[in-house]
Write a structure and sequence with these properties.
The chain is mainly β. The protein folds into 2 domains: 43-131, Immunoglobulin-like (Sandwich); 138-206, no CATH class. Helix content is 12%, strand content 38%. It is built from 1 helix and 15 strands.
Length: 207
């Protein structure tokens, strides 16, 4: 009986210890109120210059309100948008039927050149400068059969390339299926991949 009594006492000691711990944890709780101040809408400018011979474009709109989330962002119309490069070429973009979108049909961008963007709207001027890096050629591409956690099978796709010796390179790979960009490829890696050369600078790399 004494042994049983000790077990019961130990059990109640454990319960009381847990209750004390729970009380201690609950007494540390504190309600934190985050003050998300409302701010005036800000202009957002997104520019694209590529070397594929496609349409260079600039999209201009305003930010939305955190307290009234929406998929609609007010476009900026009737803006003056100019893209120029460091060899003297310049083009004033035309506004598309989609408000807030401006496009150029000028020749494709050239790797190694520096491009400047100038936007004038509502009496304010916005400027940006960016250089188009040299192309990094793909060495090889292969697929490897893989099996998922639930037994489903598919393929992992890998792109091999040699990173240039200069640091600061960034890479983006967008998979396509039948010429259509895919956010998810069943059984494969899928999605849009963005990475840099922080740990692979100057080395053979893959995505």
């Amino acid at each position: 009986m004494a042994k049983k009594h000790n077990q019961i006492m130990n059990f109640f000691t454990l319960i009381s210890a847990l209750l004390f711990l729970e009380f201690g944890l609950s007494s540390c709780q504190k309600v934190i109120s985050v003050d998300l101040n409302q701010s005036s809408p800000q202009i957002v400018i997104e520019g694209l210059v590529n070397d594929q011979g496609g349409i260079d474009s600039v999209v201009i709109n305003m930010t939305g309100d955190y307290f009234t989330p929406s998929l609609y962002f007010q476009p900026i119309t009737n803006a003056m948008v100019i893209i120029s490069d460091n060899v003297g070429d310049s083009d004033t973009l035309k506004e598309a039927a989609v408000n807030g979108t401006y496009y150029s049909l000028s020749p494709a961008g050239v790797p190694g050149r520096t491009y400047s963007l100038k936007v004038v709207t509502n009496g304010k001027e916005y400027d940006a400068v960016s250089s188009m890096p040299q192309k990094v050629e793909i060495d090889s591409f292969y697929a490897q059969l893989s099996t998922g956690l639930f037994g489903e099978s598919g393929y992992d796709f890998y792109v091999m390339f040699k990173d240039p010796p200069e640091p600061g390179d960034y890479y983006r790979i967008i998979p396509h299926v039948n010429s259509i960009p895919e956010d998810s490829i069943s059984g494969g890696r899928g999605g849009i991949f963005i990475t840099d050369d922080e740990f692979t600078n100057g080395r053979q790399s893959y995505l």
